[in-house]
Design a protein that fits this description.
The chain is α/β, with parallel strands linked by helices. The protein has a single domain, classed as Spore Coat Polysaccharide Biosynthesis Protein SpsA, Chain A, CATH 3.90.550. About 30% of the residues lie in helices and about 20% in strands. It is built from six helices and eight strands; from the N terminus they run E-H-E-E-H-E-H-E-E-E-H-H-E-H. Strands 1, 2, 3, 4, 5, 6, 7 and 8 form an eight-stranded mixed β-sheet that branches. The two termini are about 25 Å apart.
């Protein structure tokens, strides 16, 4: 996956989870953030960045560039912009895989397949349902970061630019673990 950067969106306060999902734990003891960074790394993403809740200490994860959000309550698209602005300071990547931290069960093969998709952006599709991560070209990242593609959501931007669907065989792409119950359901449905 040469030339693909990774961005983990982990800046939320995690109200429905009982705390920031970045620090939520999987049964193996890893945090959601650890799992997301590891799978992006396994898929070959470099560099990898994450947006974190305001005031967060650097999580000291090897290879991770951490961006603490400036204020609480920012929407996801604001987090995307902040993360992309930070990533754009790093040369050498042509596409970015954007992975919300509440999707810690995604497999590296799915990320690689999505990153190999044609067009300016790609969205995974598992059994007809869209999921994460999405992958965008650097040129799209630049227009999001500078406000030329104002959103107000990433979904709207992806629709406007004609993102392609990439069929994947990975239930983790649609496993939105945004509550403890959702995590348990996703773990039961995992292979």
């Amino acid at each position: 996956m040469a030339g693909v950067a990774g961005l983990v969106l982990a800046g939320g306060v995690g109200t429905r989870f009982g705390g920031p999902k970045a620090w939520a734990l999987l049964p193996d003891g890893r945090t959601f953030l650890d799992a997301c960074v590891a799978v992006l790394c396994e898929a070959g993403a470099d560099p990898i960045a994450a947006t974190l809740p305001p005031g967060s200490a650097d999580p000291a994860i090897d290879g991770l560039i951490a961006f603490s959000l400036p204020t609480p309550g920012l929407d996801m698209f604001a987090s995307v912009k902040i993360g992309l602005r930070g990533l754009l300071a790093v040369e050498g990547w042509t596409r970015a895989a954007i992975l919300p931290v509440d999707h810690p069960l995604v497999e590296s093969a799915a990320i690689s397949a999505i990153a190999a998709g044609d067009g300016p952006a790609a969205i995974p599709s598992f059994r007809g349902k869209h999921g994460h991560p999405v992958v965008i070209d650097r040129s799209i990242a630049e227009t999001i970061a500078d406000g030329s593609l104002p959103g107000p959501t990433l979904r709207e931007v992806l629709g406007e630019i004609g993102a392609i669907d990439v069929p994947v065989d990975d239930p983790g792409t649609i496993a939105n673990c945004n509550t403890p119950d959702a995590l348990q359901r996703a773990l039961r449905n995992a292979r």
